[in-house]
Amino acid sequence: MIQQRGNFDWLLKELADGVPGIHQIVVLSADGLRIARYGGDPDGADRVAAACAGLQSLAGAVAAEIPGSDGRMHMVVIEIDGGYFYLMAAGPNAYLAVLADTVAEAGLMSNRMRDLVLRIGSHLTSPPRRDGQTV
Fold first, then answer.
1. What is the pLDDT of residues 30-71, one digit of tens each?
2. Domain residue spans in the chain?
């Protein structure tokens, strides 16, 4: 059920087990490539990762318009019909995305995601790419 580069599968499972209602967790690079996933199918995780690249860019652009902001996106929460989508910065050029149903409690989710990022954020870092190659 878990596909990833690196060995943090148990941490993603721990997040899923700790917050009721999680359907899928995706760790992605800033350019929308899936690094790891828990739950869901690989194609769905790839689509989520690709969509997140645009969303984090949009959120950063909006953040830049707030006086005093450094223009970086920290967390985005979207309420959708039947659930929630969470996207959190997880290290340089890396993000943590979670899809959950309405059972998931937003405060618990954001706290657990933040705890996970603090514990392994440096391991979630994705190096920049040039012409499709890791630099």
1. 899 998 999 999 999 999 999 999 998 899 889 889 999 888
2. 2-134
Query: Long-range contacts for 18-22 (Cβ within 8 Å, ≥24 apart)?
Result: 18/112, 19/100, 19/104, 19/105, 19/108, 19/109, 19/112, 20/103, 20/104, 21/83, 21/100, 21/101, 21/102, 21/103, 21/104, 22/98, 22/99, 22/100, 22/104
Look at domain 2-134 and name its CATH class: alpha beta
Instruction: Report phi then psi at 44, rounded to 5.
Output: -65, -40
Rounded to two decimals, what is the model's pTM?
Answer: 0.84
Q: How far apart are CA 33 and CA 22, in angstroms?
A: 21
| 55's tokens | 């969303």
Helix (H) or strand (E) run with residue 48 in it: helix 42-63
**Angle 25-31-34 (CA atoms, 0-180°, nearest 5)?**
30
With beta carbons less than 8 A apart as the criterion, state whether 89 and 73 touch. Answer: yes
Q: Quick check: 103 and 38 in contact, CB under 8 A?
A: no
